[in-house]
Amino acid sequence: MSIEGLKEDAGFAWPPRKKGYCGLGNSPSVLHDFLTTGNPDGVKDELRRFKNLPGHLQLVAQNLGDQDIFSKTVADHYWLGYRNFKLTHNYYVLEDGITDLNGINLCLIRSGIIVEVHPQTVTAKASILVRRGNNVNLVDEHQTISYDPAIITNLNPDLMIAFHWGEITKTITPAENRTLVSGTEEILSRLKLN
Questions:
Q1: SS3 state of residue 56
Q2: Strand pairing class (110-118; 167-172)
Q3: Residues 65 and 124 in one domain
Q4: Domain limits at 114?
Q5: Is there a single domain that holds both residue 101 and residue 172?
Q6: pLDDT per residue over 121-180, tens digit each?
Q7: Residue of 13, 61, 62, 160 with fewest CB within 10 Å of its CB?
């Protein structure tokens, strides 16, 4: 088991789970406890209760030849999108077409650059889907994004972040940002609008 991969999975799963979405488990606090204390007890079980997550991680692991669905490599590929964009979280969110743009924007893994840091929020120049005529494009706008200071620390202006359900999940590198944005744009270029 990779603690780093499990941490990444839990980090991306925690924001929707704490709001009552996606997970079917009874104990979303297990994810928060792991992210704040490092105690992995029960985390795999909680992640396995997420709608579609175990199957998606298994597909990524098989594609990569990785035996551990909770490895760091599998987590990176699924949440941020590396080798095959059709095996990413954003692909699964967008594959049925775009009907509810607000809901889609919450569920997508998006990225941004921090402009200002405040207690429990940042102002960031961050990606968001907008409809322009018959097209939906990923554009950058100033947005307020939450974070849990017990989980996400050492935030500064100019850091790149990934976020999910309006909450920072991790800081990312410029290469990770390019991969996330280009993968999402590739998916958008192939979608039909509803």
A1: helix
A2: unpaired
A3: no
A4: 97-189
A5: yes
A6: 999 999 999 988 878 889 999 999 999 999 999 999 999 999 999 999 999 999 999 999
A7: 62
Q: Does residue 87 fall inside a structural domain?
A: no
pTM of the model: 0.93
Last residue of a domain, one of 23, 48, 80: 80
What does the alpha-carbon distance between residue 8 and residue 18 come to, in Å, rounded to a whole number?
16
Tokens read off for 193: 């609008």
For 80, 104, 110, 139, 163, the CA distances from 115, given in Å and listed in that order, are: 22, 24, 16, 16, 15
Same-domain status, 69 and 129 = no
- Strands 121-132 and 110-118 turn out to be antiparallel
Does the structure show a pLDDT above 90 at 83?
Answer: no
d(C-alpha 70, C-alpha 10), whole Å = 10
Quick one: which H or E segment has residue 106?
Answer: helix 101-107
The count of structural domains within the chain is 2
Q: Is residue 88 part of a domain?
A: no
Distance CA(181)–CA(96), nearest Å, equals 19
* Same-domain pairing of 37 and 110: no
Helix (H, G, I), strand (E, B) or coil at 164: strand
pLDDT digits (tens, 9 = 90+) for 155-167: 999 999 999 999 9
Which helix (H) or strand (E) segment is 135 a member of? strand 135-146
Residue 26 lies in a domain: yes
| Residue 120 per-residue DSSP state | T
Alpha-carbon span 113 to 38, nearest angstrom: 27
